[in-house]
Recover the amino acids of this structure.
């Protein structure tokens, strides 16, 4: 539901409420970097979020918020004339440029296929994953990602094991050319001690961050490609040879390609962790 926003939100006549001025009603989105999303969590005291497909929002007409401070008089007149819902100003007491805000005028009507994924708090993640996986309708439409993907890549490594979408049974660690190595369950790794967490981040922080991004990529890519394949399946197969269509078989082959990066990164992070926790993990082994 669109809400009144913009520089003009409190500048109506006393007899007119902001909600009555349709020209300043909009829905806000952020186009921010992976690293900056936790700032939005903190600002709103919430770790819930909806990520829409970029083309859906573009087709709806999403546009970036415009700050009058940065515009010429000519630009200001043009923007005010055409898009008053986009206009904001900043000053020493009020500066929201960090939000990287984009807006869609009015309300936004969408269906579940327009959603790339949902972000949910880690405390709710497993319950909601189970709920979605046990509901035929929900399981077809949406993926869930834990907020720790953005706020704590270390915690994300452990949280993703709760997801049936991303789960694996055992970890093949230190595999050599002939498939030797260790097979470990994830629950064999004890809870991190504070000093272990610091060491783990120092030694594997780059890989943990890459793993978090790979999780997002895997989810988004799978949903995006699956949406196209649903469309293509509605066409007469004789039309698949049309030059305007991409290679459908290649899309199917590449559908799970991001999973391989995700898998290799997961294994590597646990190999680093094993070296850190080796004495604790093997203390009760019968060697």
């Amino acid at each position: 539901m669109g809400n009144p926003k913009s520089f003009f939100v409190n500048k109506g006549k006393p007899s007119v409420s902001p909600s009555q001025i349709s020209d300043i009603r909009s829905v806000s989105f952020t186009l921010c970097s992976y690293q900056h999303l936790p700032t939005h969590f903190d600002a709103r005291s919430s770790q819930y979020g909806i990520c829409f497909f970029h083309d859906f929002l573009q087709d709806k007409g999403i546009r970036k918020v415009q700050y009058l401070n940065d515009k010429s008089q000519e630009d200001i007149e043009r923007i005010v004339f055409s898009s008053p819902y986009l206009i904001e100003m900043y000053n020493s007491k009020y500066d929201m440029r960090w939000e990287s805000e984009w807006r869609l005028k009015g309300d936004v009507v969408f269906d579940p296929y327009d959603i790339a994924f949902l972000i949910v708090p880690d405390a709710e993640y497993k319950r909601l994953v189970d709920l979605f996986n046990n509901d035929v309708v929900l399981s077809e439409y949406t993926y869930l990602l834990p907020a720790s993907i953005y706020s704590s890549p270390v915690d994300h490594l452990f949280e993703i094991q709760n997801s049936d979408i991303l789960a694996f049974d055992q970890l093949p660690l230190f595999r050599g050319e002939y498939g030797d190595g260790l097979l470990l369950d994830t629950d064999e790794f004890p809870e991190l001690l504070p000093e272990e967490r610091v060491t783990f981040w120092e030694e594997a922080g780059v890989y943990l961050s890459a793993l978090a991004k790979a999780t997002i990529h895997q989810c988004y890519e799978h949903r995006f490609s699956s949406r196209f394949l649903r469309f293509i399946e509605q066409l007469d197969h004789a039309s698949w040879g049309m030059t305007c269509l991409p290679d459908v078989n290649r899309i199917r082959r590449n559908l799970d390609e991001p999973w391989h990066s995700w898998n290799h990164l997961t294994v590597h992070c646990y190999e680093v962790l094993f070296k850190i926790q080796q004495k604790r993990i093997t203390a009760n082994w019968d060697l």
